């Protein structure tokens, strides 16, 4: 017995030693970079952003026609406030409302770079208007903020890009690489008529870019437990998006004589079955990169977990939402309180983890719900994007620029659960990265697509400085 206990003790000690060794040898992936000074910005940057907000370029649905007056008015506004851009860059109108600017580089041997943003914004819930500090399309400016729909998503980055190019042109700067500015008009409803058409056009022109940079990454403050420094999240990929309708059809009947299984009950059970049979959490690329970059910057106990994912990956993956998610979003059925309906329908939305597909999700649904339920794909569907590299020239330039401007920031590659227009650009870019230094914190994260959307003047200036320096660093 004593020998057995000694053996067990030895195994425990070896096990603990392995965990600790992995934790102590987990090396930081952060780089040292030459400090970059914030450029001296011209007057009027906040007035111009506020002016952009006054154009209600709202996307309502995939089928709805864009508001021509709002979009055309916004285009004229851009032309009026950025004269150097419109005198020096070639502008191509794509699909009537999307904008593609081309800034010719001096060295055609260098691959171009594409910067993206989008013009459209989501609607505002009318009952929430009283909870806004100012009207969502008023373009109000306070001592600290520019307020309005689109300040965070995504006219803030669009206007910052235009400001930085206008500033560089005023300094007489000529890029070595050709620079494209691609501004779609329907990102909020899938981007199929905007960014997708821009990507098709660039492919027809034979463009092969070094990288594409889009929204979807951010500077996270107080969002990572145990980390006081801001975390610069560069998203290398995005989950897929698919919705399926579950349709139940029966003979209906009178509510005084309900069958054992009625229409709504069958549908409700299917929803419960899907929620109780979630897709598994998985360690996939780029989640493994997130652990490698984040782990060394964590307090010791968390570092042990991140250094030993082979043992402790369950809680980590769950915290990172590293699975295909299941979310019932719409349910309809019934016309009268004493009539069992003949048809009931529910829409279930899935955000698909890399490595899975729309087809595997549909198979999962069919194997989980009762075989009498009809399963129908609905609306916009897209598979997960490819995963961009972390050892590329583009990633190195991004990391160097971030660390030069924000030396305290921890740069972490990751996966975004939401969708962006960037998904369309993998065919014409070596890599696609989602990052602008939009600061997110527990206080303002809910303002994305939410109530009282606003951006601080300080953060808006930081985004202009970042795009200004990134263009320079690319040379």
Automatic annotation (TrEMBL):
Record protein name field: Peptidase M20 dimerisation domain-containing protein
Gene3D superfamilies named among the record's database cross-references: 1.10.150.900, 3.30.70.360, Zn peptidases
Keyword Transmembrane helix applies: no
An MF annotation (GO) of this entry: metal ion binding
InterPro entries cross-referenced by the UniProt entry: Bact_exopeptidase_dim_dom (IPR036264), Pept_M20A (IPR047177), Peptidase_M20 (IPR002933), Peptidase_M20_dimer (IPR011650)
The keyword RNA-binding is annotated on this UniProt entry: no
Coiled coil (residue ranges): none
UniProtKB keywords: Hydrolase, Metal-binding, Protease, Zinc
GO biological process assignments: proteolysis
Stored Pfam families: M20_dimer (PF07687), Peptidase_M20 (PF01546)
Protein species of origin: Robiginitalea biformata (strain ATCC BAA-864 / DSM 15991 / KCTC 12146 / HTCC2501)
Start and end residues of each Peptidase M20 dimerisation domain: 237-369
Record family assignment: Belongs to the peptidase M20A family.
Organism superkingdom: Bacteria
């Amino acid at each position: 017995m004593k020998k057995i206990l000694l053996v067990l003790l030895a195994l425990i000690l070896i096990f603990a030693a392995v965990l600790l060794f992995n934790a102590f040898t987990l090396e930081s992936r952060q780089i040292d970079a030459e400090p970059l000074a914030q450029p001296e910005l011209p007057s009027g940057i906040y007035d111009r952003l506020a002016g952009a907000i006054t154009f209600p370029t709202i996307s309502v649905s995939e089928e709805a026609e864009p508001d021509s007056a709002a979009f055309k008015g916004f285009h004229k506004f851009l032309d009026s406030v950025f004269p150097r851009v419109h005198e020096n860059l070639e502008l191509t109108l794509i699909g009537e409302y999307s904008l593609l600017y081309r800034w010719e580089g001096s060295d055609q041997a260098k691959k171009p770079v594409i910067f993206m943003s989008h013009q459209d914004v989501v609607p505002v819930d009318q009952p929430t208007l009283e909870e806004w500090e100012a009207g969502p399309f008023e373009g109000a400016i306070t001592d600290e903020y520019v307020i309005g729909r689109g300040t965070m998503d995504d006219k803030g980055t669009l206007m910052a890009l235009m400001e930085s190019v206008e500033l560089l042109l005023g300094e007489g700067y000529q890029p070595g690489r050709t620079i494209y500015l691609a501004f779609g008009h329907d990102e909020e409803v899938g981007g199929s008529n905007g960014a997708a058409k821009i990507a098709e056009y660039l492919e027809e022109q034979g463009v092969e870019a070094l990288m594409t940079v889009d929204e979807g990454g951010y500077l996270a403050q107080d969002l990572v437990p145990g980390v006081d420094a801001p975390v610069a999240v560069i998203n290398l990929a995005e989950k897929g998006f698919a919705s399926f309708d579950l349709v139940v059809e029966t003979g209906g009947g009178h509510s005084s004589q309900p069958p054992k299984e009625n229409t709504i009950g069958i549908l409700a059970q299917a929803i419960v079955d899907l929620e109780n049979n979630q897709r598994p959490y998985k360690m996939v690329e780029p989640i493994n990169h997130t652990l490698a970059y984040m782990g060394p910057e964590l307090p010791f106990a968390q570092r042990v977990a991140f250094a030993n994912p082979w043992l402790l990956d369950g809680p980590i993956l769950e915290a990172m939402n590293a699975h295909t998610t299941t979310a019932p979003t719409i349910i309809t059925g019934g016309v009268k309180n004493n009539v069992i309906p003949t048809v009931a329908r529910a829409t279930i939305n899935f955000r698909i983890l890399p490595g899975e597909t729309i087809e595997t999700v549909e198979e999962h649904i069919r194997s989980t719900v009762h075989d009498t339920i009809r399963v129908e794909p609905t609306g916009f569907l897209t598979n997960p994007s490819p995963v961009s590299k972390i050892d590329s020239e583009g990633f190195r330039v991004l990391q160097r620029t971030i660390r030069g401007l924000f030396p305290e920031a921890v740069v972490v590659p990751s996966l975004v659960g939401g969708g962006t227009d960037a998904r369309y650009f993998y065919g014409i870019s070596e890599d696609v990265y989602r990052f602008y230094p939009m600061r997110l914190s527990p206080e303002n994260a809910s303002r994305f697509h939410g109530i009282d959307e606003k951006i601080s003047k300080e953060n808006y200036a930081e985004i202009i400085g970042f795009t200004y320096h990134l263009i320079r660093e690319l040379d």
